[in-house]
Amino acid sequence: MDNSTLFDERTFYQKFIKDLQFCKKEVIIESPFITSSRMKILFPIFDNLAVKGVKIFIITRNPLEHVGKYALESEVEIQRFERSGIQVLL
């Protein structure tokens, strides 16, 4: 029988980051929201993956679909992804 665990907003990112650190070939992340505060935590991990040759793909919403500061943050972070060699799919 498979062993499974249910995560919530308090426990998800710790496990997610641990899983990212073990990636060997590629990472595909689907996230409708991209915020600068979350990327401060994740970008160092993405940089380490890129150094190891891991390809990273982010599937997200078009920044124009967000309101207020989230639209600007999303656009800024998407540009940062692209400068880092991370492929973004809207």
The tally of helices reads 3
What sort of overall outline do the alpha carbons produce when their principal axes are compared?
Answer: globular
- Rg (C-alpha, Å): 14 Å
The major β-sheet equals: 3 strands, parallel
Describe this structure in words.
There is one protein chain. This protein is of the alpha/beta class and 90 residues long. The protein is built from three helices and three strands, in the order H-E-H-E-H-E. The protein has a three-stranded parallel β-sheet. Helix 3 (69-83) links the parallel strand 2 and strand 3 (87-89). The mean pLDDT is 92.
Please give the structural blueprint.
Blueprint: H1 12-21, E1 26-30, H2 36-51, E2 55-59, H3 69-83, E3 87-89
Parallel strand pairs: 1-2, 2-3
Question: Care to give the gist of this entry?
Answer:
With 90 residues, this protein is of the alpha/beta class. It contains 3 helices and 3 strands, in the order αβαβαβ.
Descriptive tags:
90 residues, alpha/beta, 3-stranded parallel beta sheet, 3 strands, globular
